[in-house]
Design brief:
The complex is a heterodimer of chains A (about 50) and B (about 270).
Chain A: H1 4-12, E1 16-20, H2 22-41
Chain B: H1 6-14, H2 19-25, E1 39-43, H3 50-66, E2 70-74, H4 81-88, E3 96-100, H5 107-110, E4 122-138, H6 146-155, E5 161-164, H7 170-182, E6 187-190, H8 194-203, E7 208-212, H9 213-221, E8 225-230, E9 256-264
Parallel strand pairs in B: 1-2, 1-3, 5-6, 5-7
Antiparallel strand pairs in B: 3-9, 4-7, 4-8, 4-9
Classes of the chains: A mainly alpha (about 50), B alpha/beta (about 270).
């Protein structure tokens, strides 16, 4: 994603290039899953 | 002999190593080069969305670097669980990947039962494109800033409306999270799809919409809509005039969407 064409691509879709390795990705996903659980608990949404 | 893993390959794509360098590094401990056959990447959403677009670009880059075919299959439906389930049932040989974004982390909270083991069947490989979430209003909206929108919501709880493609979608949860962070209550208006919600925002039927920036870029650049704020620690290069949530006065809201690949265990 640091190559010029991938940077340009990311910019064209209003995004940022980056890189999470597997460990970082797993940690974020665990935190994210917990975060959404808290949000779900605060809404009236019922699981299907 | 060096061992090549997909995560190493993806990491190497970050620095645009030449195809020759990739090929030299791309050997397994058994001596067999990886990839030695086409690699399937499942996109669990319909074609044309942000995850699909990013995945196809990455597939093309990986193909360019390895000389091997990386092909994308769209397996949309049930908030992505159909495609993820297919990936979870694939051979654990590294030749089937599944793309995902933050919606994946919602799945345990929107379904009582998933057709795969959320915690065990698939493991992350890497994530590589990150898209802020933004609050978008129609171009001539009365709300010129995020502060004005939040002030109105505080003044009139449950009157400021936002539209989504349905209950349980990522924009629904993000809007709810925004309300929690700001201490306000918005009124959710679910539509049959994100496209209908966007039309409602552009016509003024609803006050705002939350979306990842790739999804709103066209309407913003086309002058039909305005972004009041985007998540992230700094402004986007592509949208330098749009403040971050922190700059707009909301420090505790910074959700970023990602696109990444997951795979079956135990291949490495």
């Amino acid at each position: 994603m640091r190559s010029a064409d991938m940077k340009a691509f990311s910019e064209s879709i209003a995004s940022e290039p980056g890189y999470w390795d597997a460990a970082t990705f797993a940690k974020d996903l665990a935190e994210r899953t917990a975060y959404w659980g808290k949000v779900a608990a605060n809404t009236a949404f019922e699981r299907q | 002999m060096k061992t090549m893993t997909l995560r190493r390959l993806l990491a190497s794509s970050m620095v645009a190593l030449s195809g020759a360098a990739i090929a030299q590094a791309a050997s397994t401990s058994s001596g067999q080069a990886w990839p030695s056959k086409p690699v399937k990447i499942i996109v669990p959403y319909a074609p044309g969305g942000a995850v699909d677009v990013v995945t196809r670009k990455m597939a093309a880059k990986l193909q360019e670097q390895t000389g091997q075919t990386f092909f994308v299959e769209n397996r949309a439906g049930a908030t992505g669980t159909i495609g993820v389930s297919q990936a979870a049932q694939s051979a654990p040989d590294g030749y089937t990947l599944v793309a995902n974004d933050t919606t994946y982390a919602l799945l345990p909270h929107i379904f009582k039962k998933l057709p795969f083991d959320y915690a065990r069947d698939l493991v992350p490989v890497s994530a590589f494109v990150f898209a802020p979430m933004g609050v978008v209003v129609k171009a001539d909206s009365r709300f010129k800033t995020l502060g004005e929108l939040l002030a109105a919501a505080k003044k009139e709880p449950n009157h400021i409306t936002y539209g989504t493609g349905g209950a349980g979608t990522t924009p629904h949860f993000v809007s709810e999270a925004l309300g929690i962070a700001a201490g306000v209550n918005f009124l959710h208006v679910p539509y049959k799809g994100a496209g209908e919600a966007t039309m409602a925002m552009l016509s003024g039927t609803i006050d705002y919409q939350v979306a990842s920036t790739p999804g709103v870029m066209g309407n913003v650049k086309g002058g039909k809509a305005r972004l009041l704020a985007v998540s992230g620690s700094r402004r986007l290069t592509a949208l330098p005039d749009v403040p971050t949530f922190s700059e707009a006065g909301l420090d505790n809201f910074g959700l970023i969407n990602f696109t990444g690949f997951r795979r079956r265990l135990p291949w490495q």
